[in-house]
Specification:
Helix content is 25%, strand content 0%. It has two helices and no strands. The model has no long low-confidence stretch (mean pLDDT 83).
């Protein structure tokens, strides 16, 4: 079983009513997450593996 803890203190109350949370999106790209975690994007993607619900939107 996997788990994650997210600090939602500064989120607007309407944002907390969502059915899902997008961890990687246009405003927080994979490269930014990797920099924050002091790793590389490849490591994040491979660690998520089949456990994540992948949905590709746009892109090239």
């Amino acid at each position: 079983m996997d788990s994650i803890t997210v600090d939602v203190t500064d989120l607007d109350k309407t944002a907390l009513r969502a059915d899902f949370a997008a961890l990687i999106h246009d405003d927080y790209r994979l490269e930014a997450m990797a920099a924050d975690l002091e790793t590389i994007s490849y490591e994040i993607i491979t660690n998520l593996g089949h456990r994540a619900n992948w949905r590709y939107c746009g892109g090239v």
